[in-house]
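Category: protein sequence paired with discrete backbone structure
Discipline: computational structural biology
Format: plain text, a pair of labelled lines
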Amino acid sequence: MNTLEEVLETALQLPYEQQEMLIKILQNRHHESRRAEIAADAQQSLADFHADKFQPQSAEDVVTALRQSLQEPDA
């Protein structure tokens, strides 16, 4: 397997137009991968919902929990 540094060195040896194409290809694949991840999460959430794994909550409780999660530092 190549290291990131090796890949970057190789990419920088490409002509400018090919570097631009490589950037677009990588961005598109990254976006596709993220979309697939989001879709899988959504499918799991729907399955959990249909399996009654969620507890009813008031909108106020949900908003409070969301605000608290935004204030917590990332682990």
User: Anything to note?
Assistant: Helices lie at 4-12, 16-50, 59-71. Residues 13-52 form one domain. The CA atoms of residues 39 and 45 lie 10 Å apart. The mean pLDDT is 95.
